[in-house]
Specification:
alpha/beta; 6-stranded parallel sheet; 7 helices; globular
Length: 208
């Protein structure tokens, strides 16, 4: 397998998920942001371009207000913002929708995006799904992402259920899911991460 030409995409690692109305519940948010920071450091050392994305809602919105106290990046990541090769805001779940990211990646012959950040159940999932028809390979770092508890008229699930279920779903078709340590090893060796596939995942699911 050829060596992936990667970019590390930091999705919405903002204070909204730490001090705002959407606190990440699983994995532990302080541990996950430390893993994001480690991924940025490793990417910079390996000449893997880092892209920082922030979600921006209209002024006065209850979340992601660009003038609000919870709009900025987490301080651990703000301290590393100078390592970013590209930084922009978005208004949809997908990092591709309404942005110039696809063009930026293609100009640099990047074929694989590594997704970290928040939330697993919204922008990470949406970005992974959106990458498929564009032809980009996708990697998701399970310990550098995170989910929230959910409850609505359709049902409820804990953040751990949400996160672990979506990691299995992503690894079955849309992405190669791995830990940050495994990814750091892969970029060091120039190797690809191995994801699952839908047929084998289905067979193993029946067997379980």
């Amino acid at each position: 397998m050829t060596t992936p030409n990667r970019a590390l995409i930091i999705i919405d690692a903002q204070q909204e998920y730490f001090e705002g109305l959407l606190p990440i519940q699983f994995p532990d948010r302080n541990e996950s942001v430390a893993r994001i920071a480690a991924a940025i450091d490793a990417a910079a050392n390996a000449d893997v371009p880092v892209v920082i994305v922030q979600h921006e809602a209209p002024a006065g919105a209850p979340i992601f207000d660009p003038a609000g106290a919870t709009f900025p990046l987490h301080p651990e990541l703000e301290a590393r913002a100078d390592k970013a090769a590209h930084q922009f805001t978005k208004s949809f779940a997908s990092v591709f929708a309404g942005t110039s990211l696809e063009e930026w990646l293609r100009e640099r012959n990047i074929d694989t995006v590594t997704l970290v950040g928040y939330m697993t159940n919204n922008c990470v999932l949406g970005s992974a799904a959106a990458a498929e028809p564009l032809g980009f390979g996708v990697e998701v770092l399970s310990d550098a992402t995170g989910a929230i508890d959910l409850s609505n008229d359709a049902g409820s699930a804990s953040a751990q259920q949400v996160h672990e279920t979506l990691m299995a779903l992503l690894n079955s078709n849309w992405a190669a899911v791995a830990t940050t340590d495994a990814w750091v090893e892969a970029i060091g060796s120039g190797s690809a991460l191995q994801g699952g596939n839908l047929i084998e995942s289905a067979a193993q699911g029946r067997a379980a």
